[in-house]
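Encode chain A's predicted structure.
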Amino acid sequence: DPLNPFDQKASKDEHGVSRAKGYGSVQNLLQSLGQHVNVVCLQETKLGSAHDLTAETATPKGWDSFFSICRLTQRGKSGYAGVCVYFRKELMVLSAEEGITGVLSGAAGDAVGVGAEESESAADDVDPDRPKADPGKRDTRRASTTSHKMRSRFTLDRMRELDAEGRCLVVDFGRFVLINVYVPAVTSSDPVEAATRAAFKLDFLDAVTIRHESFLAQNRHVVLCGDWNVSHKPIDSAHAPDIKSKLELNSYVLRNPGRFWLSKALGEKFHGDGGGDCDAPCDTGRKTLPPRPDTLDPNHKPLAHLIMNPKPLVDVFRHHYPTERGAFTCWNVSAGAQLTNHGSRIDFFLCDKSFFDNFVVRSGVAHGHEGSDHCPVFVTVTNEAFRYVGGSVRHSDGREEKETEKYAKYSPPASASSVSFAAAGRQTSLAGFFVKKTVAAAADADTGFPSQQMLPEKRKRGNTPCDVSIKSFFKQAGSRFGEGGDTVEGRTPPPPPATTAYVPPSAASVPPSAVPTASKETVDAWRRIQARQKPPVCRGHGEVAKVRKVMKQGANFGRVFFACPRPAGDVRNGGDCGFFQWAYDRK
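Encoded structure for chain A:
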């Protein structure tokens, strides 16, 4: 809304930030989100390494960024996962950190938001009457508490594993700390691998809990966003069962550890979790369903023990639209599920209650933004939520107020892409290798980049017949000077020598063979095979089925089958009828 004097933070799972398909460039992608968007969080950027970053990708015009890239090198993990945060260059960022545990920064969770100068000023926004700390000292007590909780929960090797896949960025904007996450999904059909990834997902969520609660303990505002790979309530998923009672809802949440974590983070209570009773009476004569063994490790510590002094977070969208149905953010596009809106809401914003009350204006889901199997979700906040370069605060009424002088001389954090590219002075485009070096370029010592030496002087071209431009090879035959021909140093290139081109015999001159190439029995056999593999019609709609192949690793990998041609979704809403048939027997 161009008339709305607010900024927006947008989150989107992009499936490859460097690919050109769809928008052509990162600049175009950011522009497509709107001119009033100030912070953009992307997940699943799929960069193979930092060498894949270019200036056009990392620092498009008017933007700066932070990236977290997968560090795994084993087969199948290159170009895996990854998150990034783009922000307008006019915004102040106090610090940024890659990973959720803090091990990559060497501070075990203390790199962002623990300095007394930054955290105290931000905490004043929450509680102006709170005791002030010494502005010249770091709050080592809080830092050591955060580090102790993280190290008491995980080994150092496990912390490195959690941060090795590039799944989190923590960015301190002064008035709030932004945590951009890409939570792991459990998709393997192999029971051992599924159990391993389920434990990894729970550990990652545990680390998120420790981290965001450490900020809340410091009276910091916290905003969490990203692809959570879990939907909350049945209203948030088209795949959810029909829930008819509080007890069934209780079981629905407890059966999925990720959903249980989300409910605890939002301050909800359920039977069997040590958190008290339901909000409404439940049938105590029925037992809740036990957690599935393939998703919950029996040796895993319950997530509830991590919330020592709970300060519930707010699901921003659900707080604004508690009963809105069909607000899905992810679909199976290979099955056409986006056409019938048969998906799940697994991308959302969480924040502390104080930030929601003081800064959040509205939120939404941008269903019309295409280009991925996820659509963007956004939160609109007031201008006071940000600090701006120059040490000023912009109010919603247009006023600009200067802050203290400590922010007057601002420079981005060292991990910002703009700083990294400037420090490296690396070549960012292929065209630069073909630019002729000049004396001025070699003698320029004020650019801040390494000087370039002059190329040795090349010998002058002689007046030899072979001394011609490469453009002469693309001229029309017989062209002359002044008639579209090209010249080299004012001379007309010599005409090409006369040659006789070889002309192959015409294919039409060879008569086709009148002898059959296959016997009648062979032809009939192939016709029977083709008839057997001809797609049948689905039983629900009487339409010709579509041919698909099993791509998931397992016993049926590579097998071909027939399915209903309609997009996935409710059959009453034009979705598929569920027809399925193998294309052929294994025999």
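The CA atoms of residues 8 and 380 lie 4 Å apart.
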